[in-house]
Amino acid sequence: MTATAPPEPTDPVDQELTESTGDEAGDERLAAVRARAAGIARWRPVTTVTTLLMLVGGIATGAFWTPLAERSWASAVATGVPALAEGHWWTPLSAALVGAHPVGALLGLLLAVVGLGWAEGRLGSGRTAVVLVVAQLAAVLVALGIVVALAATGWVWAVGLAGALTGGLSTGVLAVLAVASATLGAPWRLRLRLALVGVALVGLLFLGHLADTAHTLALAVALPLGHRIAGAGAAPSGRPGRREWRLVAAAGLVAIAVIRVLTLLVPVAGPLGDTASDSTPVETLVSVVISLLLAAGLRRGRRLAWLAGLVLGGFYLLVGLFVIGVVIWAQLTGQMDQVELVGLAVFVPNAVLWSALLVWLVAGRHAFAVPSRRRLRRRGGGAATGPEVARDALHRHGGSTLSWMTTWPENRYLEHADGVTAYRVHAGVAVALGDPIVAPADRTAALEDFRALAERSGWVPCLFSTTEALADAARADGWRSLQVAEDTLIDLEGLEFKGKPWQNVRSAFNRAGKAGISHRMVHLAEEPRAIVAQVRAISEEWVGDKGLPEMGFTLGGVEEALDPEVRTGLAVDAEGTVHGVTSWLPVYGPDDVVVGWTLDVMRRRQEGFRAVVEYLIASACLTFQAEGARFLSLSGAPLARAGDEVEGEHVLDRVLDRMGELLEPYYGFRSLHTFKAKFQPRYAPMFLVYRDEADLPRVGIGIGRAYLPDARVRDLVALVRS
Questions:
Q1: How far apart are CA 159 and CA 216, in angstroms?
Q2: pTM exceeding 0.85
Q3: What pLDDT is stored for residue 664 in this prediction?
Q4: Among 691, 687, 694, 686, residue whose Cα is nearest residue 480
Q5: Structural element, H or E, at residue 185
Q6: pLDDT category, 544, cuts 50, 70, 90?
Q7: According to the model, what pLDDT value does residue 558 have?
Q8: Where do the TM regions start and end (predicted)?
Q9: Where are the alpha helices (DSSP H) in 203-299?
Q10: Does residue 40 surpass a pLDDT of 80?
Q11: Is pLDDT of 218 > 90?
């Protein structure tokens, strides 16, 4: 099954797939609109005027080659508490056009040209100018007020800032970038925001300049309000996918390691004192190695690395709170001179960074469920087996069109005498995925093993998306069943795309040829990094812009496509740009023979060739037909079925139908089902097998949580209210 939306032009999720209307005039109109937009974007008056003013200010004051602090008239240009105390009220404005230090002045100019220019193209000149001026003045003035208040307490850092001057426009530019981030699609929106927060937080904790304080204040306001300020240009808000949770966690650990090295090699005076610590190079090296090893594990979603990160994050949080408590106690009791503060300026900021990482790991815990490859795990009272056991069973016995999904690492496994059942546990419900992977004669015994496991563990058992043969065997053994989806199968023998029913497919081939796009069926893990990166970007663009979190269970992604036994179809143009991607899961018959392929990932680049998905599926049909496969499965869209209400329709049928209706604007399952009908498939029913009717309420909740394991209550409430 695929987690992509269908290509109907009126569908709310049309960003995901494509339509085969043959309307080349529409493409030309779209290209003309983009060309006009590009022409307008070249002229950025706010960026141009700001850059010219900064050049004039830097040259006139010599800020590009001499620190302003060396000039006797510095307080008349740069701003700070001394400048305002001298009555130089204009300095918050003039200081924005000069840098306090040559390095800062040059970097500020570069930031204005690149960052402000990009943001103005996203927000427009009016919004950019307002945010730039208001954020710069407000954040700097508030920061000065905070410094004055803290200096009254005798805090050495605040006292030092109260006598310092600052300059530069970085505060306003960062605020503009924060607002402009709301116009980006996933995953770049989250990445830019985290980068901005990281710059401000690290600067405040380890450097503590007046500008760092202003940066933090500006971002604290601009980021939450960015979506509203951006107006109609704001992109839909979404949540990170599994890979994004992993990448951010890994990047955070790498950043912590780099900061640890820098504070050892280049100590500076921060808010808590000198960042030079008494750590030896060996201690620092050990800490860095541990951080990098954990980062590698988190990037792969390893559960063990996640647990280790929780332990270290919790340790730093507790010790950080203890140190802060000791300092506060010493201040209140007047014994500050007896407290050893060596390393405080490094340890407490590191504790803050580790605490932020801890929060991220807890919030994204669902993304770190990949078990260790080196040992088997015992879970849920059943035999602990890894995906390799499911693979071996598939090679021996074969399976259904969904059986390859049992090899995905989030599954648990119950091992039988000769085979395995893959399942997950949600809300006290053990949801088996498809048929048990056993010989046909062993189906009844496998069902009894699964029921016994559930009863021992206090779970409600059910099997989701089984074949009709398994449902028949289960009913004979006292189970109940009902149809929940339909598999869409394309028989490849004698398939030719001829006649009126295949007009859309032929149009897709023609348009691909005109656009210079070719089809490649590859093993994604063997492709160059540039290709894999494009595939990830296409996938994350779709995942991150959904109103609900990324779905799972029978819906795979790029990580699953990297499996060496999975095939990936790519639509690539002459320049090497990937316009669309499909992934195909092997369907094994007995004796280790691949008899068919099941479609999983189906996504396209938003700006790419519009009929790319029809082209990819049709090309895959021809490729696998030539290799001797008997059929392709376009899989069954979750919570979607063809046809009208049937006699004896069950309560759970209506519940699942209603859930499908609610999720349609976000994931487009039903329109997807309609889209697949273009390929003239035959349908095979897919069933839910359950124990008795009393279990159905919990079964419905368990299946919902299996697809949306990390959905929050407010997500579901918002879904129902919509």
A1: 19
A2: no
A3: 43
A4: 691
A5: none
A6: low
A7: 86
A8: 46-65, 93-118, 130-151, 157-180, 192-211, 217-235, 247-269, 281-298, 305-330, 342-368
A9: 210-230, 242-265, 281-299
A10: no
A11: yes
Cα–Cα–Cα angle for 16, 557, 585, nearest 5°?
105
| Alpha carbons 125 and 41: distance in angstroms, whole number | 10
How far is C-alpha 561 from the geometric centre of its chain's CA atoms? 17
Lowest mean pLDDT among 230-239, 446-455, 472-481: 230-239
Range of weakest confidence among 421-435, 506-520, 552-566: 552-566
Give the span between the Cα atoms of 722 and 517, in whole angstroms. 40
- pLDDT for the residue numbered 276: 65
Average pLDDT over residues 546-565: 76
239 three-state secondary structure:
coil
Q: Is the pLDDT of residue 156 over 60?
A: yes
Range 651-659 contact pairs with CB under 8 angstroms and sequence separation of 24 or more = 651/696, 652/482, 652/688, 652/696, 652/699, 652/700, 653/482, 653/483, 653/484, 655/700, 656/484, 656/700, 656/703, 659/700, 659/704
Count Cβ neighbours within 10 Å for each residue of 220-235 and write b for 16 or more, e otherwise: ebbbeebbebbeeebb
**Rounded distance between C-alpha atoms, residue 626 and residue 622, angstroms:** 6
The identity of residue 307, as a single letter, is L
Look at residue 330 in the predicted model and tell me its pLDDT: 67
DSSP 688-716: EEES-GGGHHHHHHHHHHHHSTT--HHHH
682, 596 Cβ separation under 8 angstroms: no
Output the 3-class SS for 658-693.
HHHHHHHHHHCHHHHHHHHHHHCCEEEEEEEEECCH
Alpha carbon 620 to chain centroid, angstroms: 28
Helix (H, G, I), strand (E, B) or coil at 545: coil
Nearest to 174 by CA among 114, 125, 238: 114
User: What is the rounded distance in angstroms from the CA atom of residue 715 to the CA atom of residue 367?
Assistant: 18
Give the separation between CA 79 and CA 95, rounded to whole angstroms.
6
pLDDT, mean of residues 200-204 = 90
Max avg pLDDT among 30-39, 243-252, 638-647: 243-252
DSSP secondary structure of 24-73: HHHHHHHHHHHHHHHHHHH--HHHHHHHHHHHHHHHHHTTTTS-GGGSTT
What Å distances lie between residue 75 and 70, 87, 104, 560, CA to CA? Answer: 11, 10, 17, 60
